[in-house]
Amino acid sequence: QVQLVESGGGLVQAGGSLRLSCAASGRTFITNTMGWFRQAPEKEREFVAAITWSSESTSYADSVQGRFTISRDNAKNTVSLQMNSLKPEDTAVYYCAADRASRRSEKVAVAAYDYDYWGQGTQVTVSS
Question: Residue 29 pLDDT > 90, yes or no?
Answer without folding.
Answer: no
